[in-house]
Amino acid sequence: MKEQEKRNKWVVRIFAFLTACALWLYVMNEQNPIIERTFTVPLAKINLAENMIVNNMPEKVSVRLKGPRTTISSAREKDISAYVDFSDTAKGRHNFDIRVKSNYGEVTGMNPEGVILDIDKLGEREMEAEARIIGVPGSGVTIGKLELEPARVTVKGASNRLAAVFKLIVLVDVTGRDKNFEQQANVVPIAMDGSEMHDLSVQPDKVQIKALMMKQLASVELPVKPVISGVLRNNYTISSIKTLPEKVRLTAEPAVLANLTEIKTAPVILDNIDGNTELQVPLNLPEKVLAETHSVMVKIEIEK
Q1: Do 140 and 211 have their domain in common?
Q2: Are 92 and 119 in contact (CB under 8 A)?
Q3: Total number of domains in the chain
Q4: Could you read off the pLDDT of 270-289 as tens digits, one per residue?
């Protein structure tokens, strides 16, 4: 009788275990089904030599995982790693497989599955940056002087790309500016076709700009008029008087030049002149006017 009771207990236990397994399978299939989910993750580089650089490598890839819903739902992008292994890769163009590791579910697909990448040696090149002015300054002023500090910077990147750099530009926006100013701006490598080369790095990537603004000036040529003072002795009279040069070029603000029609010399004193004479005489220049010369030769011829 006891043997029969023991046997019945084992039958109950086995039945209970099978029932539990059946219930677990039901729950897993009905309440926690197998699903798929796609993740966008960064594409990393591993085992790349320090003196090498990779061109045209995508920043991210899509990875598809498959597994129970509770597992896949708890997965995050940081739990999945996608990478390209560059061990013992030489310079040139190569095909690479993208590898993925995940602690959640099974990897069932990637997009793309592989990439064609250009491997090049890392180089650097020192170049001078140049300012490029954009915008229109305030009324009546213009750019007098622009300074960049530092004027020369170092460009780093793939050797073949460094060779294609045409110039380094710094954009200086002067829109509405009417006073001296300082600011920082990015240095941008430019190719021969005018495109920006964002795959290259610049050190330092910013430079200090010092801009000197000045009033907008104009130039004009005006005649020189000799000014006479005093009287010739011994009944002499002036037969001819002229200046060399006869005209001078003046530079000033347009409003100042608009009021000028001629430039006069300092007075030429006649009291002590008793023959033909040449005198170096200063010009009587108005304030805020620049002249190519500050004096002229006055030639005086006299007769009885």
Answers
A1: yes
A2: yes
A3: 4
A4: 888 888 999 999 999 988 88
